[in-house]
Write the structure tokens for this entry.
Amino acid sequence: MARPVSRRQFTRLFAAGGSAALFAHPAWIRAAAPPLPPDGPAAGEAFWKNVREQFVMPPDLGVMNAANLCPASSRVIEALTRETASVDRDPSPQNRARLTGAKEATRASLADFLRVSPDEIVITRNTSESNNLISNALDLKAGDEVVIFSDNHPSNHQAWTAKAKRFGYSVAVVEHQNPHPGPDYYVDAFAKAMTARTKVVAFTHLSNTVGDLFPAAEICRRARERGVLSVLDGAQSFGLLDVDLRAIDPDFYSGSAHKWPCGARECGVLFINQRAHERVWPPSYSAYPGAVGISKTVEGFGQRDEATMIAFAEALKFQSEIGRAAIEKRSRALAQQLMAGVSKLDGVKMWTSTSPERSAAVVSFLPAALDTRKLAAALYENDRLAVATRGGSDRSGLRVSPHFYNSPEEIDRLVTALAGYLKSGV
């Protein structure tokens, strides 16, 4: 097996010839993966094995941490290195001028992916920046109210509570319930939480903690009927679920390239529904805004790294070639296999609902009395399986988030390894 490329080797290879030199290195030979079979997912495991070969991870490494960071496919890496090298070789205005068109092409790809208009797409750095852009850009004042979910990510929870202290509006919190009580419960809970003072409802589509899936379309509809803006954090649904924003119809939706879409890092998306454009103030003023729609107003972020955006478009294209519905089905099936296996282990407390209408592919559980940090370290060092840990008193344990590049065999390896550690300790 080829040895990993060190930072020094990477720099030397890149200086010697950019992406061509880098991809000629033995450690990157697997980047030149064969094309996807024409039969697609109908070919079964043979197809998904080929999909796995589109990534440069070693074959023996099973990474199941998509809720935090996904690997980029070889075509994404190639696009990123190619475009970075192009600008570094020739940073002239003439060479860089083409990147404006490339950025707008990515905007169009994002709009198509989410089934909306390019006029409604802002290209950001990640979900956190997207969420904070919203809470910075809305004109909220004393007497107004924002309803949030207790299990939101800090960028959609702490951001609102901190800014409420500054601007004088109030925040009401819908508390999470475990186990997931079902979609109707949360529809009613958010509806009851909204008052005549409520201006915004901000909640997560799929929680990053235990993978609770929310009835987004219905909550957004209830908010819309009351003239309340809806903010949907899509960090854990974008690139996993076959998201149709026209059907869900939120006012705002955020996502990151580096998670489930398997794109480059430091690139993200913010959807701003056409009806909400006049409600948004520019959060910053600088050069190089977008060329269409709301991006002309709120995308003044200064100098950008267009290479990440071009690579982002490659990630979206890759998912579309595989089939977004097929990716969702695959990831959900792996999660169901995992939950079925782990639930049979003695002493394990499952935090994630096994119901498909209440969860997707983020699975959290408490592995009896085992030290979760030691357990995660042992799984990585001994079994070549990478998962995440969750500390604290609120549903702590392991978080496993498999994606379409994982396999049923890796799920079986994980369940077998967990069974062993539960018997012998770590």
The chain has two domains: 99-318, 325-424.
